[in-house]
Amino acid sequence: MATQTVTENALLARARASHSKEDCQTLYAEWADTYNSDLADASQDYVAPFLAAETALEHTTNVKGLILDAGCGTGLVGEALARGGAVTIDGLDLSPAMLRVARNTGVYRDLDIGDLTQPIEKPDEVYDIVTCAGTFTHGHVGPVPALREFVRVTKTHGIIVATILEDIWVSGGFKAEVELLEAERLVKVVNVELKDYRRGAGDKATFVVLEKVGSV
Ligand SMILES: C[S@@+](CC[C@H](N)C(=O)[O-])C[C@H]1O[C@@H](n2cnc3c(N)ncnc32)[C@H](O)[C@@H]1O
Asked: Does domain 48-212 have CATH number 3.40.630.30?
């Protein structure tokens, strides 16, 4: 048990210490198989994906619509969405190893390798809901171009639900980018709320809900 805890903390520490796409690729290739059990451990109690799915389900009027789970990882958000009645969910992630685990959930329609630091290889205005949990964190993905790309691929009046780790919401430029998208009348900010991220570790994330109202 002690060895398991040390390993788990080492992987989490590496996640927080990631500086590049290459760091993330190496880390998640090693972590994919134990990611779910490590983060379900009481010392972590990683609730962000479940709260993100719950938030999306609360705010959508179209649960049967098309959903993109960006940075889907092993599929925790997709599974929670499916339990809530979602039927058509696409996933996108940088890590082939994480996507392999996501594929085994059986809840995703398409799963693609994709880099959220670049334009998303999806057409404009196709998704009713875009979710992104746990991926706006240290050394992973920044607000630009990802948030604007989420708006681009979302249908008018569709919603975007993203978690941003509390300590980078302002310092990482996420708040400023949301305000810019709102000033450009591309989105309406429906809700911004601090919620639990890892209950076991006591950290929190900003959960932002945007409604697309204009075209990118
Ligand atoms: C903490 S995990 C979150 C996964 C899942 N959404 C969850 O909540 O369990 C972060 C995910 O971001 C992905 N990621 C990191 N950098 C990325 C990038 N540039 N583009 C797409 N995904 C990325 C990782 O591969 C990993 O699956």
From this structure: no
